[in-house]
Amino acid sequence: MAALATGGATPSDGATSFQRKAPASSRLAAIAGTRPSVRHGQLLISSGLPSLDCVLGGGLAVGTLLLIEEDKYGIYSNLLLKYFLAEGVVCGHNLFVASAKEDPADILKELPSPLFDEVHKHQLDEEETTIKSKWESQEPMKIAWRYQNLPKMEVSPAASARFGHYYDVSKTVSQELFQSIKWHRFFLPEEISLQPNIKTCNMICSYTRLLQAIQRIIYHEGFDGSFPQKKQKNILRIGIQSLGSVLWGDDICGTDNPEDIHSLTKFLYVLRGLLRMSLSACIITVPAHLIQNKAIIERVTNLSDTVVGLESFIGSERETNPLYKDYHGLIHVHQIPRLNSLICDVSGTKDLAFRLKRKLFTIERLHLPPDLSDTVSRSSKQDLAESTKLLSSECGAMAIGKKHLDF
Amino acid sequence: MFVELNELLNASPERPEEGKFTLLRDTKTDGSFLVHHFLSFYLKAGCKVCFVALLQSFRHYNIVAQKLGVSLTAAKERGQLVFLEGLKSCFDVLFGEEQQDGPPNPLQFMREDGSNLKTMYEFVHTSLMPSGSDSWKCPVLLVDDLSVLLSLGVRPVAVLDFIHYCRVTVCSQLKGNIVALVHSSEDSEDEENELVVNSLCHQSNLILWVEGLATGFCKDVHGQLKIIQKGSSELKAERNLLRIYQYKIQDKNVTFFARGMSAAVL
Amino acid sequence: MLGELVAGSVGGLVLIQDSAACEGHSLLKTFVAASARRGESVHVFGFEIPEEEFQAGLDPHVTAQLLYQDGFIDPLRWTGQAGGFGVEEFSGRGVAGCLTRGSAGPGTIVLDSLSWILLHQPLPAVCQTLEQIPRVAADAGWHVTRIVALLHGDLHPSGLLEMLRSLAQAVVVVRPAPEAVGSTGDAPRQASLLLHKGKRKVLKKEEYFTILAGFTLKTLGEPARGALPDEDAEPCSVADPAANLTFNLRLSDAERQAREGVPLPFHFSAQKKSSLLQMPAGMGKIYYEPDAADDPDEEDPDDDLDV
Asked: What is the CATH number of domain C2-72+85-219?
């Protein structure tokens, strides 16, 4: 057999394998699910969405804060929060979930299930058995016929220790996987009933309470890097839902002149300080569209590290716009942090859109649908041209571009 | 320290200017590279530096400073640099016990109603007052960034008072320099911040205004720098000298060029 | 007319309103120099710049006439140094108390700047003080002919500015002059003047001016009236790119059929295809490792095509 001739190292089916070398990070990163950044040496963790990691310069740096401006109905921002937490479950990180609305346990129950490589392998086997029958049954390919009897996709079996995983939003995470990790909860209604209201440092008591809870966990569970810990180091993933909403007791939503304009910014500042000196990363969703005073948003942005805005098409006129028919919303990357460096990893593309498919949520570069004007079913070209104008004025910051030339 | 910027400003670490208030202002982009420039510039010049760092951690500033050829830890040990790490100090104010003895925490205002920054001023004052033993050149106060103070609940007039007193002490009495960063944007609704920025523009001797390109993001041109040199008001009124350059930030350096003269465009 | 104003034609409150783009400090010093040359005593209440900086560039005999109340050094009484002028002292009585130290005869009071005071005292209190100063001073035997105040227009809401303008006898708003005016060396500016003449007359005027060494004023004439620059209307003609082509853009039916009849270079007979598709034994295998941009969803990526 040919397999024997090529040597013992080759797999028994007679195939030589060219596998990409495992990334060098596996040596350096002692903690599962992390890798050091090439740019600034800070440890990165995945946001749970590889396409988002890609946009944010490889992932979320440990010790930083990702702020997500919620979409109008909070659907996709909650999804991102769950992806972030699910990635923590898969990597065995510790979780801290805070909410004023949903019980954290309920949030965790709804985490999407990871799409492990076994699934792919399973598909692969199926394909191989059917491939012969396909060859006969399928109508022969006309143009790309050389690919006719190649299997659809082959995944290397040893890719499970990857950075960032894919998740199936149609299924929820299995209980056994979930029981293996350690998590902490902060459910505001519970906390308030435990202790009386005290307002310290001119900050709303719910925020003070939340800060104290996070600080307690960081210090007691050994996430602060200040003194050496005996046990294995781990990452704490903090997820905070709808911070700044009325349920947190904050009045910045809804009124133009809130009484407590500084509570949220103070909270963020202290939280930033906490994160910077610990092995943790935080994701916060904020209902930015409800905050009337735009000055608060500007300040909140300045105090966060990464800021991403979601704009869903649900209920907006863009839902029916032919230009956006492939997408469910736009994603705006407002800020990328500069860490330990003068520069930051900005991706070249600014026009990004997301879509939620049956199983998967992806972020893609926004592009126009193909213009197949010969067919009747297409919306008229005129229509499309109109919306293209719309796009260019919105996405490229070209509003001033007509008269102004930078070079 | 970026050599090209020194040339544009006609400055060199051998002869730092004295008694100047430089305002760094950024609009729709990040101007922190200028803070790193002035930090390394004044440390190389042998000035005594008090750095009020509210936005980032010491680690961050130190790593970037090392790329620019300066070690902050060494400067701290020599007593040349006094570093106030806001992200750490705010902690002691919020969670630490109130200590009775010793100087009050500079961020004490977070406990109070934010009506004045006297403790912070006193911190700057004691840090920069020359003591008999050291032989540093003129003292320098560096702030990154003033807008954070507003987010922490300080009233804008209190921020202006803080800078006023720093100008009295550092610029006027000790013949030193102040460099402070603020964020601003024309269409901003943050009126408090606009008040601070406009007022500081009146008081400053030099404004370095970093703006993102109006036409959007570009890979090879990261923004433009407006250098506004205020008239000296010595003999007669002079027109404010305005120069505009575009820049590109690299790993360890920033290159400046005339508008439209980026190597990538030509 | 700005010249007359500097020469002392108008008494009462004179406001100089500037902005960050065009400073009014030098005009303020021009007023100071002019008053001092007329032999009046000049009281400067300075909060914004140190005394040395204010006196820089003024003639020695002008500075001799100048009485500087130092509000710069410790206006809030933080450092507890003796001397200086605290912002709390800015009231009719407090200001008049400082005047007694000056010489008698007509005097000018200079506020550098009113904006600084307004940030630290409520507007009604400041306005009342401005009204009181001449009266309280007259009671003490001093004649205050005018109060010249610098105001940074971009620091205050427009309502407040209107309020102050209504109190003033004269308002000078300075802004940068258009490029074409004056020679480049002498930094021309444009002044919009609003003057109350007597009880019944109000004058409005635009003037260009510049300030020479030693703080003397030079007027550069008035802007031409009604010469507003036209919006340059660009004629936009849409040319048809397909008008003058040297080749054919569209096919006739016969031409289309002929084109479809041509066999394509990658078309092979079924026999040849199957022989090419025979897989040699031990052929290499390609493993695929998905990366960030990949999409393992099994939905047909082409389901949006109408094929």
From this structure: 3.40.50.300
